[in-house]
Amino acid sequence: MRTSYSAIETYLQCPQKYKFQEIDKIRKPKSREAIFGTLVHSTLKFMFQKDPLFPTLDEVVAYFRAHWPLPEVFEQESKNDPLKHGWTEEEQKIYFEEGVRMLKKFYEKNAPWNFSVVDVESRFEAVIADEKTGETHILAGIIDRIDKRADGSYEIIDYKTSKRMPSQDAVDKNLQLSLYSLGLQKRWPHITPEMITLSLYFLKHGEKLSTQSTAETTEKTKAHILGTISEIQERIAEKKEFEPMPSPLCDWCAYKPICPAWRHLYRKSQSADGTSREEIQKAITEYFEIKTRDARDGKRLKELQDEIKKYMEQEGVTRIFGDEGMISKKKTERYEYDFEKIKALLSPLGKWEEMLKPDEIKLRKVMSEISADVRDEIEAARKVKSEYITLTASAKKISGVEFLNKSNL
């Protein structure tokens, strides 16, 4: 199987998007954020590519300005998704000025002549063998920048235009950086993991977060990638669903209008069985009314229980009677045990081992108390025993529903 970090990341974020993108090969226009990020990366490549005469800051900004997308490029996003409207001139101006600000800040702190840049936008292909299946997989990717340091070590740098900066712990466990380290080692076998520093440079903040590659992280990365590939292959072979995983990332996904988790928002006609939008809207309204009533009644029931228990305690009774029936009070006690003493009592009887039989409730508790690495290995050992469907409801309003209800009826 041939794959990439981008494809692996997409699958981990949302299997349904992976299917649209990698299996069905449905091509969609890039989002405005992707267009912006690509141009910033391209400009930084220009900044470090010229040697020995590196471009001045003015030349870097001029390159960014010259390649700024035409308005119709941004308009394509709104054509792809009816919920999104084209960029206003003000919005385009804000993005452009933010790009210039990022580049200026970066240039001031990272003059290109101060670094020994080995390669920019470096493509790699790493062959990974799965010892369990005997298969080999090709892992491809592009590294934003590779520097060689004075001590002979190397630094992999990946640029980020996002606003949020992760914790150091998240950087230490970053799959993308670990994968790039693996790719560099496969490309240049003389480089050991310990010779590689992995960095994320957050252009918006002008900050760089780094971590160190190790042989252990390299092996864990290989195992994680192979496990993910195996899971994808299993879904394909057994024709399992690639279910959507709704998250805030959906707002930037070009597949939203055709995704099962969102497609209903964009439906313009009645369903296959003839159910109209008005009919299903009526069912949804009643469903939420019942859910709201149940929640309200549950709260009131708790209040009445407290009132009745208080009355029984004051009157010293265990039953009370009304026109509708009788209410009884029963004391239920919960205990905690000294298991060392219990072990001494049960072991001679051969019963102690029965107490140690694993169950899912105990396992969930243990999972919350162990490291992420061990959790990953435990999750890799699980399998689906049964499947069932449940419905959940949220009173949260989805932006655009009212707009579509009016325009699509």
Q: Percent helix among the residues?
A: 40-55%
* Amino-to-carboxy terminus distance: 45 Å
Give the CATH level 1 class of the domain at 2-237. Answer: Alpha Beta
Output the CATH topology of the domain at 2-237. Answer: Lambda Exonuclease, Chain A
What's the SSE pattern? EHHHHHHEEEHHEEHHEEHHHHH
CA-atom Rg in angstroms = 29 Å
Question: What is the strand and helix layout of this fold?
Answer:
Layout: E1 2-4, H1 5-13, H2 15-23, H3 32-49, H4 57-66, H5 71-80, H6 89-109, E2 117-129, E3 136-148, E4 154-160, H7 168-172, H8 175-187, E5 196-202, E6 207-212, H9 215-237, H10 277-315, E7 319-322, E8 325-328, H11 339-346, H12 352-355, H13 360-367, H14 372-380, H15 401-408
Parallel strand pairs: 1-3, 4-5
Antiparallel strand pairs: 2-3, 3-4, 5-6, 7-8
Helix pairs in contact: 1-2, 3-4, 3-6, 4-6, 8-9
Description:
- The protein is α/β, with parallel strands linked by helices and 409 residues long.
- Among the domains are: 2-237, Lambda Exonuclease, Chain A (Alpha-Beta Complex); 281-319.
- Helix content is 47%, strand content 14%.
- The chain has helices spanning 5-13, 15-23, 32-49, 57-66, 71-80, 89-109, 168-172, 175-187, 215-237, 277-315, 339-346, 352-355, 360-367, 372-380, 401-408, and strands at residues 2-4, 117-129, 136-148, 154-160, 196-202, 207-212, 319-322, 325-328.
- Strands 1, 2, 3, 4, 5 and 6 form a six-stranded mixed beta sheet that branches.
- Helix 1 crosses helix 2 (15-23) and helix 8 (175-187) crosses helix 9 (215-237).
- The chain is extended and about 95 Å long.
- The chain starts with a strand and ends with a helix.
